[in-house]
Amino acid sequence: MSLDLPILLTLLLAVASPWWFAASRTTFLIVGGLLHGGHLLYYLGQLAAVSGGGDAPVRQSSEWFPTDLIAWSFSGTPWSLLFAVMITGIGLLIFLYAVGYFGSSAKASRFFAPLLAFEAAMLGLVLADDSVLLFLFWELTSITSFFLIGFNHEDGKARWNALQALLITGLGGVAMLAGFLMLGSEWGTLSLTDWRAEIAAGSLPSMAPLILILLGAMTKSAVFPFFFWLPNAMSAPTPVSGFLHSATMVKAGIYLIGALHPLFATSPAILGTLVVTGSITALTGLILGWVQTDLKKILAYTTLSILGMLALLLGLGTPEALKAAVLVMLGHACYKAGLFMAAGAIDKAAGTRDVRELGGLRAVLPVLAVSSFVLALSKAGFPPSLGFVGKEYVYKFGFGGPVLAQALLVFLFIINLGLMALALRVAFTPFRGEAKMVPGSVKKLNGLMMAGPVALAVAGLVLGVLSPQLLTPVVGAAVSQIHGAPVDLVIKLWHGVNPAFLLSLATLASGWFLYQKWPSHGNPNLAARALGGFESFYKLCFDGLMKGSSMLTSHLQNGDLRSYLRWFFAAVLLLVGAKWWMSGFPAISLPGGADEVPWIEWALVPALAVFLWVTVTTSSRIFALLSLAVVGLAIAFVFARLGAPDVALTLLLVETFTVILFMRIVGGLPQLRNIAPPRERLLDILLAGGMGLMMTLLALKVAAVQTHPSISNTLADWSYPLAKGKNVVNVILVDFRALDTLGEIVVVTIAAVGVRLLWKNSRASEKSQPPSQTP
C-alpha cells in the first residue's frame, strides 16, 4: 500500500456514501469500519518503522497529476504519520459514532460524503510533501467543513457560522499559498522536505513568506485574534465537532508550524509571535469558556486554550517544550474527541446540552458516566492518564527551563486548573446529584455512540501507563523532526516526588475547589464582552464589504451596454498603459519607408476616414451600416493584396451576410439620435481614440518582435516532401492549417444559415400580421 491509497479510497467511499447508506446501512457500516481500521493499521506500521530509527521517512511521488505546477508527492515523516494515525483512529470512532448518532435519519445520506471527504483531505494535508498540493488539501478541508458546519442549512445561524469559518480559514489559506510560492521561487523547490534540507544546509528564508505561512496556520488553528470562528462552528452536528474541531482540522495549523518549525526557528520574531498569541489564545479560551453553559461551547473554548498552549510551546522551541507540546497534543486528541462524543450522547439522551438543566444521569447512563469521568480526569491531568504525562512534562519543562519558561509556569498553572474545572463541569455535572429530568424522559443510546467515549477513555489510560514503551520512540522521532536535529528523549510516567508533581497535585486540588465554588450561570463578564469585540469587528468588516460591493455593483452593472464598454476600454487602457510605463516606454519601430507602400493602399486612408466619419455622424441607420460595410470591404481588399486570400474571402462573405441581415433588421427603425450628453460623447471619443492608438502601437510593436525564426521558409520546404503539393498556399490551407480552414468554412456556413433563418422568420411574421391602416 502507498501513502496516498487511503486518501483515494476514502474519497471513493465519500462519493458512494449517499447511495450506499440509503441502500444498505449495515454493509456501509461494515465496509467503512474495515476501511478505517485497515488505514489505521497501515499508518501505525509506517509510524513504527520510521520511529524505530532504522527506516528513513517514506517519500512517494507520481507523474499522473495533470499539471506541472503541482507534484503528487507525499512524505511519511514521524510528525505527519503521527497525525495520520490520529486522523484515521479517531476517524474510525467518529464514523461509528455518526452511524449511531443519525440512525436511519434521512439526513445521514448527505452527511457522510462531506465527512469522509474531509477525512481524506486531512490525510492529504498532513502527508503531502509538495506545498501547493498541501494547499489544495488545506482548502478542501475548509470547503468540506463549510458543508459540515452548515449541515443544518435550514438554520440561518448555522449558515452564517459556516460562511464565517470558510472566509477566515480560506483567506488564511490564500495568504499561506502566497508564502509557499514566494519561498518556492526563492529556493527553486516547492517540497517541504527540500525546504528543511535547505535550512540544514545553512540557507535562511525571507521574512515575508514566513509571515504569510504563519498567518495561514493561525487562522486554521483559531489562534488569537482569529479565535471566534471555532466556538461558532459548534452549530455543526456533534460528530463534526468531535472530529474537525477537537482532533483534526483545528490542529492543521499546529501541524504546519511543526512541519516547518526549522524555518520559523530562523526568526526570533516569528517564535515570539507564537508565544504571545498562543498565551493570549489560551487565556481567551479560559475566560470565554467559564461563562458558557452549553456543553459543546465549553469544550470548544477549552480547545482554544489547548491550541494556544501548543502554539506557546512551539514558539518556545526548546526540545523540552517541543516534547511537552507533542504529549499535550496526543492527550488532547484522545480526551477531547471523547468528551465531544459524550456531550452529543447526553444531548441525544436528555434533549439538552445546558449544564444548568442536567444532573443525575449516572443512574440511567452509567457507562457514559464512567467513561466521561475518566476522560475528564485525563484532561485534568490525573495519574496515570496520558493527560497526566503531558501536564507533567509541561511543568517539568517550566521548572527546568530558562527564565522565560519559569515565568510562564504560573500562567500554565492557571490555565491547567481552569481547564480541570471546565472538564468537571462538562463530564461530572450532568451525572452528579439528583436527577433533574422527568423520569422516563431520558432516551436509550445506540451502542455505536458509546464505543467512542469508552475506547478513548481506555486509550488514554493505556497510553499513559505504557507511555515509556509505546510513546518514547514515536514522540522522540517527532520532536527530532520538529527541532531539526536529533533529540534524545525518554518518557517516564513517574518522576518521583518533585516540584512538577507537587504542582500537579496543587492543580488538581485548586481545580476541584474552583469547580465547586464558582459554577457558571451563563452571564458574560466584562472580559468576555471585551473579547466578543473581535467577532463584532469581523461582522463590521463583513457588512462593510457587502454594502460596498453592492454599491459598486449597482454602479458598474447598471444594465447599460455603453457603460460596460466604457469601463472595459478604460480598464484595458489603464492596464496596458501601466505596463508600458513600467517597461520604460519601449521604442516603437515603424515599418519601411512610404515609398514601399503602394499608392492604392495610401488612397484607402482618406476613403476610410470619410466613411468612418459618415458612420459616426449620420442619423441614418442605413448610411451607417453601408459605411461600415465599405470599411470592412476595404480591409478585405488589404488582406487580399497582402497575400491572405482566404482571410479576405471569409471577411468578404461575412460582411456581405451581415449587411444583408442588418439591412433587413433596421429597415423599419427610426433614425439615429443622440442619447448621450456632450460630456459623455467627449469621453467616448477619448476612449475610442485611446484604444485606436493603443492597438496601433501594439501592432507596430508586435510586428517588430521576432522571438523565433520565420516559419514561411520551413513551410515551403515541407510542402512537397510531406504533403506532395507544389502549390505552397494550397498545402498550407488544406494540410498544415486544415482545422483553421475548416473553422473558417464553419463560420461562413453558420453566418449564411443564420441570415437565411432570420430572413425567413421575418418574412413569415410579415405575412401573419394584418396590414396596417393609415388613419
UniProtKB/TrEMBL annotation:
Q: Which residue ranges traverse the bilayer?
A: 79-99, 111-128, 134-151, 163-184, 204-230, 242-264, 270-291, 298-318, 324-346, 358-377, 397-424, 445-466, 496-515, 564-582, 597-616, 623-642, 648-670, 682-704, 741-759
Q: Name one GO molecular function term.
A: antiporter activity
Residue ranges occupied by any NADH-Ubiquinone oxidoreductase (complex I) chain 5 N-terminal domain in the UniProt entry? 64-112
Domain MrpA C-terminal/MbhE, by residue range, is: 681-768
Q: What is its main location?
A: membrane
> What's an example Gene Ontology biological process for this entry?
monoatomic ion transport
Q: Give yes or no: UniProt keyword Cell membrane.
A: yes
| Location(s), subcellular | Cell membrane; Membrane
Indicate the segments forming the MrpA C-terminal/MbhD domain, all copies: 608-670
Q: Which Pfam families match?
A: MbhD (PF13244), MbhE (PF20501), Proton_antipo_M (PF00361), Proton_antipo_N (PF00662)
Question: What are the NADH:quinone oxidoreductase/Mrp antiporter transmembrane domain coordinates in residue numbering?
Answer: 128-409
Q: Which UniProt keywords apply?
A: Antiport, Cell membrane, Ion transport, Membrane, Transmembrane, Transmembrane helix, Transport
What is the top-level taxon of the source organism? Bacteria
Matches recorded under InterPro entries: CPA3_Na-H_Antiporter_A, MrpA_C/MbhD, MrpA_C/MbhE, ND/Mrp_TM, Proton_antipo_N
Topology versus the membrane, per the UniProt entry? Multi-pass membrane protein
One Gene Ontology cellular component term attached to this UniProt record is: plasma membrane
Keyword Transport included in the entry's annotation: yes
Name by which UniProt lists this protein: DUF4040 domain-containing protein
- Organism taxonomic ancestry: Bacteria, Pseudomonadati, Verrucomicrobiota, Verrucomicrobiia, Verrucomicrobiales
